[in-house]
């Protein structure tokens, strides 16, 4: 009877701990989302003042920028196409960032993924479904490999991950340019690009499903959403995610608690690289249908801004990626229809970078909420 009395409260304690954990996760998500939205509004407000000070009509400019991408279905498609790639790149750097590793290697990973996807989709005959999946898997594997190199250098050799990723970017991009201009260049073509991928390897356009013109937007959007959910579950619901969070919070304490920090660092880079590789596959299989020079443009580094804006929360990265790409699409339309150039969009983006790098405010907010909850108890 005594044993029954002593063991009965245990499930209740576990249930209460689980309830508190879920409440903490929800609170963190709300804070991260609120800070992202507040940053966006502050950046838009500063952009409004800049336009007002330069003699432009900010009301008209913002009306065009904020409504233009939704006025026609093909503009919506252009926005979603850009958002898919940008969000995947934001997710790719968010994972190493959660382990407090400053990874700038998304550029090398996306180009490696594009090369792998294109090589399979062009030269390897496959049945219809496999023709889509296998190139994407190859792209993820290539991106993971490009993530493993700097991750292993940091974990095993103590190399600076910023230098390692930047130097690897330079190497991979140069190799990519050489291959596109040389061995993989389509023979007989005056333009510089590779052969087109097999038709069965192309990602299905959203236009085929919705029956309206959506440009090059495709089912990669669904892959991006599934990837975001999978990474959120990984970070919040798995032992590896716990080890990544603990390593990011305090690597010395994590090591003292028995976590193999070098292996966690490697895994964070590998997972991030795999996601960036998927972004490369999306560009090849869903957007261009082949390899082209400057395939990703500046998207790799803008993905870093998206991750920082979302405070490395995978679900919030989706919101940040959709907004950031919407801002890019609206800026192009604003330049076409008003006297305001896209420089104002650059100003807004710069303000976002400045605001999201100021970590004191959200950290202070979380500490105050935690102290208030402790005081209530």
Structural notes for this entry:
It is a single chain. 77% of the residues lie in helices and 0% in strands. It is an all-alpha fold and 377 residues long. Helix 6 packs antiparallel against helix 7. The protein starts with a helix and ends with a helix.
The helix/strand order is HHHHHHHHHHHHHHHH
Structural class: mainly alpha
Discrete helix count: 16
Our Rg estimate from Cα atoms comes to 23 Å
Oligomer: single chain
Poorly predicted tracts of residues: 1-13
Report the sheet with the most strands, covering strand number, pairing sense and barrel closure. Answer: none
The number of E-state strands comes to: 0
Large-scale geometry:
globular
Beta-strand percent range: under 5%
Helix content: over 70%
The average pLDDT value, as a whole number, equals 87
Separation of the first and last Cα atoms = 32 Å
Task: Outline the fold blueprint.
Elements: H1 2-7, H2 9-53, H3 58-67, H4 73-98, H5 106-123, H6 128-157, H7 161-181, H8 206-210, H9 220-237, H10 239-249, H11 251-256, H12 261-288, H13 299-309, H14 314-337, H15 343-356, H16 360-376
Helix pairs in contact: 2-14, 2-15, 3-14, 4-9, 4-10, 4-12, 4-13, 4-14, 5-6, 5-7, 5-12, 6-7, 6-12, 9-10, 9-14, 10-12, 13-14
Quick structural summary:
With 377 residues, the protein is an all-alpha fold. It has 16 helices and no strands.
Keywords:
single chain, 377 residues, mainly alpha, disordered N terminus
